[in-house]
Amino acid sequence: MSEDEILLNVKNLHAYYPSRKGLIKAVRDVSFTVKSGECLGVLGESGCGKSSMALSLVGLFNRMAKFAAGAAKSPGLLKEFEKEEEERAGTRGQVVFRGHDLLQLDNEDLVKIRGKEISMIPQGLTHALNPQYSVGMQTGEPLEIHDENVRLLGMKKKVLDFLDLVRLADSETRYIMDPGSFSGGEAQRILIAMALISGPYLVIADEPTSALDVTIQRQIMNVLQMIKEDFDVSIILISHDAGVIAELSDRVAVMYAGRMMEIGAAVQMFHHPSHPYTMGLMSSFPTIAMMRMRAGGKRPTLRGIRGEPPDMTELPSGCPFHPRCDYCIDICKTEFPEFREVETDHWVSCHRYEDL
Ligand SMILES: Nc1ncnc2c1ncn2[C@@H]1O[C@H](COP(=O)(O)OP(=O)(O)OP(=O)(O)O)[C@@H](O)[C@H]1O
Ligand SMILES: [Mg+2]
Q1: How far is it, in rounded angstroms, from Cα 101 to Cα 310?
Q2: For 5, 102, 131, 158, which has the most beta carbons within 10 A of its beta carbon?
Q3: What is the CATH code for 3-114+250-355?
């Protein structure tokens, strides 16, 4: 991959929350890139650190870690909370976006980038929209913050254009309504419009379909597909659902227990996964071949992965996946495998890569 194609270069990113039980190592030594115009899918089971990684990329993780520290220190709740641990919490590493390491910027400079050059569609719709402001005002907010010259009339036209673009029905009437009068699917469209309105280089969509029913999920996926085709924008699409990731991603990154396990081209990851964890994830995902078998009266089995993801404060030694891995050998129990480029643009972190 040539350097000039790379829009985002994440190097050795760590993100830890403090907690009463010890540090929650939500993101551990994660490195990856996002190219201009591509969609990188981030796949992994619930709690593996996907949202924490997304928050780190836009400089919001440390704020969340501070809240967590405040909760852990509440009077009467925690006697053994250690200051030292609080100091180790937060983000470390590099998040290089268009030549700037975002982890080194102060809040004033970050605010200029967040919402304008990088925007995020956060997980969990209910917290995202402010019930006190009309939908039109909120959708236009990124324009107001980032462009001092924007005029109210021009802003309204642009907001309506973007609400139409995400196919929000009757946008003109609904411009003045508050978010309480919108369904979950409509609120998600509004969040997508807000994320796009300032013309970002990168959109991070964190579980954009997970709180929605199947029909609405389909509609939101269609909107995201249209954005991918019609806008010159890179997308990081985060989901625990391999079907969602398969639809839109050019490349796929698989996370487990805060670590990157494998990154590769989507076709490769779905058809020839290399890491035992990726193999397990893909075998829990019904393929077209399986559907055909079913249609022919056969019963294909979905294998899935045995066991449960670990407690993030008590991670297993060595490779965190080893207690669940059918290919585990002694070294897997003691040493974390290096995350290495096994062939061009294909990264794997597994001691057994050569023998599988
Ligand atoms: N605000 C927070 N304060 C403290 N710990 C947190 C916070 N948010 C997440 N965690 C913990 O960090 C770890 C990673 O959580 P995260 O939300 O990043 O995972 P995820 O992969 O996005 O999960 P999901 O698929 O359920 O959204 C978990 O152990 C979680 O309990
Ligand atoms: Mg999440």
Answers
A1: 31
A2: 102
A3: 3.40.50.300
DSSP code string of 332-356: HHH-PPP-EEEETTEEE--TTGGG-
Sign of CA dihedral 82, 86, 89, 92: negative
Predicted TM-score of the model (pTM): 0.91
- How far does the centroid of ligand 2 lie from the alpha carbon of residue 206, in Å? 7
Segments in the chain below pLDDT 70: 1-4, 74-85, 125-128, 148, 151-153, 286-295, 297-303
Tell me the pLDDT tens digit for each residue of 60-113.
999 998 888 877 776 655 555 566 667 788 999 999 999 999 999 999 999 999
* Tokens found for residue 141: 């907010």
**Parallel, antiparallel, or unpaired: how do β-strands 118-121 and 202-206 relate?**
parallel
Atom of ligand 1 nearest to the CA of 311: 29
Q: Name the residue of 16, 17, 261, 308 to mutate for ligand 1: max ligand atoms within 8 A of Cβ.
A: 17
